[in-house]
Design brief:
By secondary structure, the protein is an alpha+beta fold. It is built from 5 helices and 19 strands.
Length: 369
């Protein structure tokens, strides 16, 4: 059934009502006719159905009543919410099956008792190298230094038109990587097994989702994509989440987002998106200075700037974006040539007090100077 939130007019609707499905896409709310799902059995669907059946059987046969009650209490701690942000206390059965499926998917030991904590693991960044001519589809992942390397589940879309920017629900799992996988990791053969040979010049989107190896809880997924245009000039996406400690030292210790691209090459930023996640305390931000994305350490190499005031000093989640902002001044090539991409606070006074995170998503290309 559909769920509707009413305001002065209807503000939001999701789900199915009769033969209509209410949803939301990149351009706002929409409706579509309900289509009966295709349930034709395939090899991959058979694997998924068998795994789900095993999880249900484990819940019914392997757990005691006390364990089921404990899973119900654990589900309450997860603080789930629906698409409207309304808290949804899911049953313990749902929490158990979710953990079972993630752990079994990775070949890890499944649980009977609920985990002792709700800890999740995270990824810092994900980048993709897709080169049709060289039969390369390699993903590179990083994670916080204070955290162990997580096992990761990888999802990918079929080859899409290069103009596509929102792949929707076209992802399918192509790999489950253990916590000792070496990165960059070549996904080419795994991709061929799921989606077949990609067409030259197409765009591929990849999701990477970390999973805690003992709790079975998934972390936030990171999206990356690349269009096959060869090793250069391909629009790429990079995501990095700054920790509170990093945010508070961005003047004295700028953070490297992307490494030096190689002699004679430079980064060009198309756009950047900045998502602030408020926790309990906003940051204190001096007025009149910016957060900059720059190549190297010279401010003249700045390619994008945003005003942190009204973003990280807020007491709720905020997002801003910056489209292509490279000035037309003539500059020495060595201010761009083979220099890393950094994020830098250009105020001598560091930000203070806050405990939220800042996620930076950059659309960029590597060019030859």
């Amino acid at each position: 059934m559909a769920k509707v939130i009413f305001g002065p007019l209807i503000a939001e609707a999701r789900g199915r009502q009769g033969n209509l499905v209410f949803s939301r896409g990149p351009f706002g709310a929409y409706t579509r006719p309900y289509v009966t799902p295709d349930e034709t059995e395939t090899t991959q669907r058979g694997v998924v159905w068998d795994r789900f059946a095993a999880a249900c059987e484990a819940w019914n046969a392997a757990l005691s009543n006390q364990q089921r009650i404990a899973w119900g209490e654990f589900a309450h701690l997860l603080n789930p919410s629906d698409v409207f942000g309304t808290r949804q206390d899911g049953p313990g059965r749902k929490a158990f099956i979710s953990a079972f499926l993630y752990l079994d998917n990775l070949g890890l030991t499944t649980l009977t008792d609920p985990p002792p904590s709700t800890n999740r693991l995270v990824l810092d960044s994900a980048t993709l190298d897709f080169n049709w001519a060289e039969t390369t589809l390699a993903i590179d992942l990083t994670w916080p230094g204070i955290q162990a390397q997580p096992p990761v589940i990888i999802y990918a879309t079929p080859p899409l038109n290069p103009a596509v920017t929102s792949p929707g629900h076209r992802f399918k799992q192509i790999a489950a990587l253990p916590d000792d996988a070496t990165f960059p990791f070549d996904l080419w053969n795994a991709y061929l097994a799921m989606h077949g040979w990609p067409e030259q010049g197409k765009r591929i989107f990849v999701w990477a989702r970390p999973v805690h190896p003992t709790t079975g809880l998934p972390g936030g997924k990171l999206l990356c994509f690349q269009t096959d245009t060869g090793p250069e000039d391909a629009m790429q996406i990079f995501t990095r989440t700054l920790t509170p400690d990093e945010i508070k030292h961005l003047h004295g210790t700028p953070i490297q987002l992307l490494p030096a691209p190689g002699p004679g090459k430079a980064y060009v930023i198309d756009s950047s998106y900045w998502s602030y996640k408020y926790i309990t305390t906003p940051y204190t931000v001096p007025p009149g200075y910016n957060l900059n994305l720059l190549t190297g350490t010279e401010l003249a190499g700045t390619q994008a700037s945003i005003n942190p005031s009204g973003l990280i000093d807020m007491s709720e989640d905020y997002t801003t974006y910056n489209l292509y902002d490279l000035w037309g001044s003539h500059i020495p090539a060595n201010w761009l040539d083979n220099l890393p991409l950094m994020v830098y606070n250009d105020d001598v006074t560091e930000y203070a007090d806050g405990d939220g995170t800042l996620k930076i998503t950059i659309f960029y290309a590597v060019i030859t100077l």
